[in-house]
């Protein structure tokens, strides 16, 4: 009697429990994109660190403009100019104005800026056509963040916005978990390189290209290994050779339910550190996960059919890449949408059907076979059909995973 298949959730939980985040290291800001913070980033100084003008205009005492109008402007002598980057000490005498530029320090004694648009733009004498309130066009020190305030929390991914925050708070480097290094390796005697002629019986290897690209899309750095033939003696050495350069290994093929050419299964089973599991899903029922080598590098053995490999990657490998970075932000977004046509699904397995999501409608694609790469190429979403359902009618509301 064979064991009941695992649920998708159970398989994913087992994987995440086994993943240890990569050790943190310091990287220069220029290299930090895609890394995940392993420390909080706090403001070294208040942001901004000094009161400054948010507009080009005149620094004034607001009270000196109270009665100004187009017809009867306040007239203030202009006593100098402060540009962005001027580092002197400036002081405004009441009853006068200082020309000021965006980002320039406010002079002591001034409490507002009159935008140049509300004046005659005079060099010696500013005619002020509208009164300003105290604080007008002034960006106060600490108005964005106070010194010591936490700006970025541990676990957040360094995207362009977060890199700006780290730079603005004076950081040259940040402590992060780096992008995991993923190596992808396809197995199969039938596989040849795209670009070489095809002999009947052969196919071009698509999985290793697809999965390396998917790993990069998930924030990893990824490399594909050249195709490994169905030779049990060759598989393990090929994998072991990668251990020094990989934080995660992905193989495809060679793990079907019982074929004698299932070389990946044969080679890894002996190690005793990789578990082969049936997962109650379609496509992608045969899954394998474990660790390999002294460094216990996580390894996924994905099924060979390209659609199975792709769906398995998105459901299981993607969250594992996040976990290696100590993050949990890579789950595919899920939305609710209405089926434009009925769908079928095997009983007891959760189906992930290739589909086109458009607004709140989702259209299943024809060609749901797990080898049917053409339909995968048209898909932007996966319709989820729960385990208990064998068919769902047109008009039914379903859960849909949005593909990255
Ligand atoms: P396997 O899991 O090795 O039994 O392979 C299942 C199916 O997927 C077979 O039809 C293989 O030819 C196909 N397949 C396996 N690996 C790849 C690959 N790298 N690229 C495209 N198709 C593949
Ligand atoms: Mg094979």
How would you sum up this structure, described in words?
A six-stranded mixed sheet has the order 16-13-17-21-20-18, with helices on both faces. Strands 8-5-7-6-9 form a five-stranded mixed sheet, with no helix packed on it. Strand 20 (286-292) and strand 21 (297-302) form a beta hairpin. It is of the alpha/beta class and 404 residues long. The chain is built from seven helices and 28 strands. The protein is elongated and about 95 Å long. Helix 3 runs parallel beside helix 6 (306-324) and helix 4 (232-240) packs across helix 5 (263-269). It starts with 7 loop residues before the first helix and ends with a strand. The mean pLDDT is 96. It binds adenosine monophosphate and magnesium ion.
Low-confidence stretches: none
Cα-atom Rg, whole angstroms? 31 Å
Largest sheet: 6 strands, mixed
The residue-averaged pLDDT reads 96
The helicity comes to: 10-25%
Structural class: alpha/beta
Shape: elongated
Between the first and last Cα atoms, what is the distance in angstroms? Answer: 39 Å
List the SSEs and their pairings.
Elements: H1 8-18, E1 25-28, E2 36-37, E3 41-42, E4 52-53, E5 57-60, E6 74-82, E7 97-100, E8 112-115, E9 125-128, E10 138-139, E11 150-152, H2 160-168, E12 173-177, E13 181-186, E14 191-192, E15 203-204, H3 207-217, E16 221-224, H4 232-240, E17 248-252, H5 263-269, E18 274-278, E19 281-282, E20 286-292, E21 297-302, H6 306-324, E22 334-339, E23 343-344, E24 350-358, E25 361-364, H7 373-376, E26 381-385, E27 391-392, E28 397-402
Parallel strand pairs: 6-7, 13-16, 13-17, 14-15, 17-21, 19-24, 22-25
Antiparallel strand pairs: 1-12, 2-12, 3-11, 4-10, 5-7, 5-8, 6-9, 18-20, 20-21, 22-28, 23-27, 24-25, 24-26, 26-28
Helix pairs in contact: 1-6, 3-6, 4-5
The structure holds adenosine monophosphate and magnesium ion (MG).
Adenosine monophosphate binds at residues 186, 188, 190-191, 203, 205-208, 252-256, 259, 303-306, 371.
């Amino acid at each position: 009697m064979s064991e009941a298949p695992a649920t998708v959730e159970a398989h994913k939980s087992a994987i995440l429990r086994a993943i240890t985040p990569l050790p943190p290291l310091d990287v220069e800001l220029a290299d930090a994109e895609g890394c995940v913070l392993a420390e909080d980033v706090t403001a070294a100084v208040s942001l901004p660190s000094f009161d400054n003008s948010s507009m080009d205009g005149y620094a004034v005492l607001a009270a000196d403009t109270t009665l100004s109008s187009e017809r009867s402007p306040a007239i203030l002598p202009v006593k100098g100019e402060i540009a962005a980057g001027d580092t002197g000490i400036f002081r405004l005498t009441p009853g006068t104005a200082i020309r000021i530029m965006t980002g320039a320090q406010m002079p002591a004694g001034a409490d507002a800026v009159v935008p140049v648009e509300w004046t005659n733009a005079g060099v010696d004498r500013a005619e002020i056509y509208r009164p300003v309130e105290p604080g007008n066009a002034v960006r106060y020190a600490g108005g964005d963040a106070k010194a010591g305030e936490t700006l970025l929390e541990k676990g957040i991914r360094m995207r362009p916005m977060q890199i700006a925050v780290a730079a603005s708070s004076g950081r040259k480097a940040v402590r992060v978990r780096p992008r995991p290094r993923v190596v992808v390796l396809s197995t199969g005697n039938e596989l040849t390189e795209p670009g070489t002629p095809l002999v009947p019986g052969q196919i071009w290897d698509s999985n290793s290209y697809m999965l390396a690209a998917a790993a990069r899309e998930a924030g990893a750095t990824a490399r594909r290994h050249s195709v490994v033939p169905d030779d049990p003696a060759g598989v393990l050495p090929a994998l072991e050779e990668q251990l020094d350069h990989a934080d995660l290994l992905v193989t495809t093929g060679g793990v079907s339910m019982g074929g004698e050419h299932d070389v990946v299964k044969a080679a890894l089973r002996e190690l005793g550190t990789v578990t082969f599991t049936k997962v109650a899903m379609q496509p992608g029922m045969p899954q394998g996960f474990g660790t390999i080598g002294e460094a216990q590098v996580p390894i996924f053995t994905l099924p060979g059919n390209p659609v199975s490999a792709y769906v398995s990657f998105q459901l299981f490998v993607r969250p594992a890449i996040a976990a290696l970075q100590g993050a949990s932000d890579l789950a595919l977004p899920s939305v609710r949408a209405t089926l434009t046509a009925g769908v079928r699904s095997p009983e007891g397995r959760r189906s992930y059907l290739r589909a086109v999501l458009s607004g709140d409608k989702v259209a299943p694609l024809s060609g749901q076979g797990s080898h049917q790469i053409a339909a995968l190429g048209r898909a932007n979403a996966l319709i989820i059909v729960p385990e208990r359902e064998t068919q769902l009618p047109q008009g039914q509301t379903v859960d849909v995973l949005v593909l990255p």
